[in-house]
């Protein structure tokens, strides 16, 4: 999907949800499983979240917002 021409300049935000559940993978484990460290041509981030509590959601959206603001 990230190889699509229309997405060539996009950034990637992954929410590692359900962190309150036993056995949930942390950000490093998800990064490794998805091969994100191999992505060199775009910004990306993983935020550990527990959506039912709102934990990590604002941090993710804040990263996204600040990453998409043009720098002049």
TrEMBL record:
<dbReference type="GO" id="GO:0003924">
    <property type="term" value="F:GTPase activity"/>
</dbReference>
<dbReference type="Pfam" id="PF00025">
    <property type="entry name" value="Arf"/>
</dbReference>
<keyword id="KW-0342">GTP-binding</keyword>
<feature type="binding site">
    <location>
        <begin position="17"/>
        <end position="20"/>
    </location>
    <ligand>
        <name>GTP</name>
    </ligand>
</feature>
<protein>
    <submittedName>
        <fullName>Uncharacterized protein</fullName>
    </submittedName>
</protein>
<dbReference type="GO" id="GO:0005525">
    <property type="term" value="F:GTP binding"/>
</dbReference>
<dbReference type="InterPro" id="IPR027417">
    <property type="entry name" value="P-loop_NTPase"/>
</dbReference>
<keyword id="KW-0547">Nucleotide-binding</keyword>
<dbReference type="InterPro" id="IPR024156">
    <property type="entry name" value="Small_GTPase_ARF"/>
</dbReference>
<dbReference type="InterPro" id="IPR006689">
    <property type="entry name" value="Small_GTPase_ARF/SAR"/>
</dbReference>
């Amino acid at each position: 999907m990230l190889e699509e021409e229309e997405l060539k300049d996009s950034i990637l935000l992954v929410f590692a949800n359900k962190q309150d559940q036993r056995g949930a993978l942390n950000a490093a484990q998800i990064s490794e499983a998805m091969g994100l460290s191999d992505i060199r041509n775009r910004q990306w981030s993983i935020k550990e979240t527990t959506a039912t509590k709102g934990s990590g959601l604002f941090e993710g959206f804040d990263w996204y917002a600040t990453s998409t603001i043009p720098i002049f």
